[in-house]
Automatic annotation (TrEMBL):
Transmembrane segments: 12-31
Keyword Transmembrane helix assigned: yes
Alphabetical keyword list: Membrane, Transmembrane, Transmembrane helix
Organism: Flectobacillus rivi
Source lineage: Bacteria, Pseudomonadati, Bacteroidota, Cytophagia, Cytophagales
Transmembrane listed as a keyword: yes
Protein name as it appears in the record: DUF4332 domain-containing protein
């Protein structure tokens, strides 16, 4: 079992007493310091809470913003594109565009590879953003360049590039 004096020294009780007193002093110091830090953290928390409350109060008291002077970017009017297309292109040939995204682009007036190649990445991201969380994960950054190659009839170059792409991303 457990032996308090494994080396059988006659003065071992002094060693035990010294270790016991040292452990007590060390425990007291650690406990005192942790209590000190706990008090410090509580003071910091109450200080931050009072700052938060004053910020909330100042927001409520602030004057309303004149929204007539704010310019909010919106999706470009879909009438910008010539939608009198004889036959829309199969936009699913673009890496990263599936049937649902093709339908979404068609609803926003993008029916051909030429129209897609002229669309900005910002516009495409906005279309996806407004369609909801299911579409927001897609990255349209390569779609205009892919559409440019498709509209120019450079199918082999497009295929070689799409082999490198990962779900339409570089």
């Amino acid at each position: 079992m457990f032996e308090l004096n494994p080396l059988l020294h006659e003065n071992a009780w002094w060693q035990h007493l010294t270790m016991f007193v040292g452990a007590g002093i060390l425990g007291y110091i650690i406990g005192y310091r942790s209590g000190e830090s706990k008090t410090f953290l509580q003071e910091q928390l109450s200080n931050l809470q009072s700052q938060l409350e004053s910020c909330k109060a100042s927001l409520v008291k602030s004057t309303p913003i004149n929204t007539s002077t704010i310019s909010i970017p919106t999706i470009v009017n879909t009438n910008t594109y010539n939608t009198t297309v004889e036959k829309p292109d199969d936009l699913k040939k673009i890496e990263g565009i599936g049937p649902k995204i093709e339908e979404l682009l068609n609803q926003n007036g993008i029916l051909t590879f030429m129209q897609l190649s002229q669309a900005s990445t910002y516009l495409l991201k906005q279309i996806l953003q407004e369609a909801g969380p299911r579409f927001q994960m897609h990255d349209p950054s390569t779609w205009p360049r892919q559409a440019e190659l498709a509209s120019a009839g450079k199918w082999q170059e497009l295929k070689d590039w799409q082999d490198i792409l990962n779900k339409g991303k570089e």
